[in-house]
Design brief:
Elements (H helix, E strand, L loop, with lengths): L2 E5 L6 H11 L3 E6 L11 E2 L8 H17 L2 E5 L19 H8 L3 E6 L7 H7 L13 H19 L5 E4 L12 E2 L22 E4 L4 H4 L1 H14 L3 E4 L5 H9 L3 E3 L9 H8 L4 E3 L11 H6 L3 E2 L5 H10 L3 H16 L2 H13 L8
Helix pairs in contact: 1-13, 2-3
């Protein structure tokens, strides 16, 4: 039985759900994280508390990291980190990626999933894109990215990713920074555990927006538009932030529409969750990044495409004809069943574990 380890962080719950379905596929797949965050995502083992940094914590992380290549056949890293990449303790040290390099020397297969700000070069993103959170004045971290983090990302691209057998990206924009990477749809939601609640068009619309970081998703623009629309129409707007997932899920079930984001150019894991619940999603999609996507996926996309400038008029058209949301919600559910089914994705990834040179067969 192939032994697979995911880690050292759980960003967006992608590694947890993927590892559970890899087990369904017959792999011995675990998720171990160096630390957990306020999101409270699950893991098979959490090595230490976030940022505490005691001697015992560092020793525990270090010896676990060095044991990984002896205990697992495949190591699947996330967010541009390895088990010796202690990003919660500060700047990069010579220890970073020591376990990844050891795994390579011992002949283990090494994979990495990149998710966004781990590899997106801030200055380049701002230069090439009309809309991006990397524009100075949008994300609060943009200045720091230019001064320090972009250099770390270039090191990752130039020195670390060439050591990896296969690199997956969850956002198609990242292909511009990591040529040759493989697009992987989100497997972060157990869609089979969610029962759809389709909009019925028979009540005042409830529109939700649920940003983990408002500066990244264009939340200020969304709130401005919704405040204007609430003065003209009988609608409800719910801004979901810092809410336990169980409580948030109840709010999502009552929604008629999700506004995901206006800057990234691709939808996030929250959009997959809402589509699995049968809810339509409005989002900014950057079509010039679509080159790495399967053609069938592009054709089937049910996303309502909006921009900062068009959002208000686009929403007014939806408010005027709410009956369209039910059919769009059903299309959204069908889309995630086809393209974000974690069992299908796990089976495709498992094939790549066996033979990394294979294309991902979705």
């Amino acid at each position: 039985m192939l032994r697979v380890l995911h880690g050292p962080v759980n960003v967006g719950n992608q590694p947890w759900v993927l590892s559970r379905y890899e087990r369904v596929c017959g792999l011995r797949s675990d998720l171990v994280v160096n630390y957990n965050t306020w999101f409270g995502y699950q893991a098979d083992q959490v090595l230490t508390p976030l940022s505490r940094g005691s001697v015992q914590d560092k020793l525990r992380r270090f010896f676990f990291a060095l044991s990984v290549p002896f205990r697992y056949d495949v190591v699947h890293y996330y967010f541009g980190l390895s088990f010796t990449s202690w990003n919660d303790y500060g700047l990069k040290t010579p220890l970073w990626f020591r376990d990844l390099k050891l795994a390579r020397r011992l002949g283990r297969k090494v994979f990495m999933t990149l998710q966004g700000c781990d590899v997106r070069l801030s200055a380049r993103s701002a230069d090439r894109n009309r809309y991006t959170p990397c524009t100075i004045g949008e994300c609060a971290a943009a200045k720091n990215c230019r001064e320090t983090l972009d250099a770390q990302r270039k090191f990752l691209i130039d020195q670390v990713i060439p050591l990896v057998d296969k690199t997956f990206i969850l956002n198609p924009e990242l292909m511009h920074y990591v040529p040759g990477a493989t697009f992987l749809p989100y497997a972060s939601v157990d869609i089979n555990a969610l029962r759809p609640h389709y909009p019925d068009g028979c009540k005042p619309l409830t529109i939700v927006h649920a940003p983990s970081d408002p500066s990244l998703k264009g939340t200020k623009y969304i709130v401005e538009v919704m405040e204007r629309l609430k003065k003209k129409y009988e609608i409800t707007f719910k801004l979901v932030q810092n809410v336990p997932h169980g409580e948030a899920l109840q709010l999502y079930e009552q929604a008629d529409l999700l506004i995901d984001q206006l800057l990234f150019g691709w939808y996030g894991g929250i959009a997959v969750e809402l589509m699995a619940l049968g809810k339509p999603v409005a989002c900014y999609l950057r079509e010039e990044d679509f080159g790495c996507l399967p053609g069938e996926m592009i054709e089937a996309l049910p996303i309502i495409r909006v921009t900062k400038e068009s959002l208000e008029s686009d929403l007014e058209r939806i408010i005027a004809d709410p009956d369209q949301l039910g059919a769009l919600g059903r299309r959204s559910r069908e889309f995630v069943e086809r393209w974000h089914n974690p069992q299908r994705i796990a089976a495709a990834v498992a094939e790549c574990y066996q033979s990394p040179q294979l294309s991902l067969r979705l």
